[in-house]
């Protein structure tokens, strides 16, 4: 299993950060792995909402199904994503800091198939990519996304 925790400080009002992060359709704006995402059924975002996700990992296109598992405004949001042989669970927590918030991202991945064979290398690559994505998220949010 791959597990890591990352965080960043963002100078935007916490409700704006939560609104952006809890909308899965915003993922391609800050997650380089996500090429496209669309809801399985119409409706507001909430626990049980599902999305079809097209992503790329280690040079391979992977289609997956994302399901919202936690939706607790204004400070907690989470989802699972089953993509090919990999299941990932992500929980995002916000804590007020000054005029903004600290975003903490906790991720757990359970690779299978070919990804299981390369779990050690995969862990380092995914963590590095998520650090880059989190830095990009900070830039996008502070620019007024």
Features:
alpha+beta; Alpha-D-Glucose-1,6-Bisphosphate, Chain A, domain 4; 7 strands
The gist of it:
The chain is an alpha+beta fold.
Topology:
Layout: E1 2-10, H1 14-21, H2 27-30, E2 34-39, E3 50-57, E4 60-72, E5 76-83, E6 86-97, E7 100-111, H3 113-117, H4 119-142
Antiparallel strand pairs: 1-7, 2-3, 3-4, 4-5, 5-6, 6-7
Could you please describe the fold and organization of this structure?
The protein has a seven-stranded antiparallel beta sheet with strand order 1-7-6-5-4-3-2. Helix content is 28%, strand content 47%. It is globular, with a radius of gyration of 15 Å. It has helices at 14-21, 27-30, 113-117, 119-142, and strands at residues 2-10, 34-39, 50-57, 60-72, 76-83, 86-97, 100-111. A hairpin with a 3-residue loop joins strand 4 and strand 5 (76-83). The chain is α+β, with helices and mostly antiparallel strands. The protein contains four helices and seven strands; from the N terminus they run E-H-H-E-E-E-E-E-E-H-H. The model has no long low-confidence stretch (mean pLDDT 87). The protein has a single domain (2-142), classed as 2-Layer Sandwich (Alpha-D-Glucose-1,6-Bisphosphate, Chain A, domain 4).
Question: Can you count the beta strands?
Answer: 7
* Relative helix content: 25-40%
Q: What structural class do helix, strand and pairing data support? A: alpha+beta
- Globular, elongated, flat, extended or rod-shaped: what is the shape? globular
Main beta-sheet strand count, sense and barrel state: 7 strands, antiparallel
Name given to the CATH homologous superfamily: START domain
Counted by DSSP, the helix tally is 4
Provide the CATH topology. Answer: Alpha-D-Glucose-1,6-Bisphosphate, Chain A, domain 4
Q: Rg to the nearest angstrom?
A: 15 Å
CATH level 1 class label: Alpha Beta
The CATH architecture can be named as 2-Layer Sandwich
Task: Give the end-to-end Cα distance, rounded to a whole number of Å.
Answer: 33 Å
Mean pLDDT: 87
Q: How many domain units?
A: 1
SSE arrangement, N to C: EHHEEEEEEHH
């Amino acid at each position: 299993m791959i597990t890591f925790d990352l965080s960043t400080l963002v100078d935007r009002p916490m409700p704006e950060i939560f609104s952006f992060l809890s909308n899965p359709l915003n993922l391609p704006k800050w997650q380089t792995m996500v090429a496209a995402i669309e809801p399985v059924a119409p409706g507001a975002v909430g626990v049980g909402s599902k999305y079809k996700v097209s992503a790329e990992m280690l040079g391979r296109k992977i289609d997956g199904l994302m399901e919202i598992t936690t939706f607790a405004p204004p400070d907690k949001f989470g989802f699972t994503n089953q993509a090919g042989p990999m299941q990932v669970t992500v929980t995002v927590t916000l804590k007020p800091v000054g005029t903004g918030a600290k975003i903490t991202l906790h991720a757990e991945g359970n690779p299978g198939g070919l990804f299981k064979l390369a779990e050690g290398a995969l862990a380092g690559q995914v963590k590095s990519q998520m650090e880059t994505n989190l830095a990009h998220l900070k830039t996008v949010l502070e620019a007024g996304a």
